[in-house]
């Protein structure tokens, strides 16, 4: 339990340190989780895990952030929960606009469209 709490706090501190400028409004944590859960690759990950493994979502940030200097939204880390440790899978960004675009953090730390991420994953 302490390890999970420590991992969660570490993620929150790192996310806050790397966060861009804050925005006035953004999607709620719950709506961000729902949008990320609808991504086909996340659904496939959930379906592929055998107990006791499961998907876990990172803790909510205090407020939405600006990604790539233009989109106001909220980031969300997705983990595989091994029970004794969390393994980071990917970090997603949900734009604040209604039916906002979902992006994924690439290896350079930039949020890219799902289509771009999918093409890179096929290589």
What does this structure look like?
By secondary structure, the chain is of the alpha+beta class. It has one domain. Helices cover 36% and strands 28% of the residues. The chain is globular and about 40 Å long. The N and C termini lie far apart (38 Å).
Task: Give the topology.
Elements: H1 2-18, H2 29-37, H3 40-48, E1 54-57, E2 65-67, E3 71-81, E4 86-95, E5 102-105, E6 111-113, H4 114-122
Antiparallel strand pairs: 1-3, 2-3, 3-4, 4-5, 5-6
Short description:
This protein starts with a helix and ends with a helix. It has helices spanning about 1-20, 30-35, 40-50, 115-120; strands at about 55, 65, 70-80, 85-95, 100-105, 110-115.
List keywords for this structure.
6-stranded antiparallel β-sheet; 28% strand; 123 residues; alpha+beta; 6 strands; single chain
């Amino acid at each position: 339990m302490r390890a999970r709490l420590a991992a969660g706090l570490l993620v929150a501190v790192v996310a806050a340190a790397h966060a861009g400028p804050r925005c006035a409004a953004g999607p709620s944590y719950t709506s961000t989780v729902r949008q990320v859960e609808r991504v086909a690759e996340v659904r496939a990950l959930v379906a592929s895990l055998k107990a006791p493994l499961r998907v876990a979502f990172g803790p909510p940030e205090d407020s939405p952030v600006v990604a790539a200097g233009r989109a106001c939204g909220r980031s969300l880390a997705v983990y595989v929960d091994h029970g004794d440790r969390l393994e980071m899978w990917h970090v997603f960004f949900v734009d604040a606009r209604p039916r906002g675009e979902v992006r994924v953090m690439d290896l350079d730390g930039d949020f890219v469209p799902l289509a771009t991420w999918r093409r890179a994953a096929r290589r």
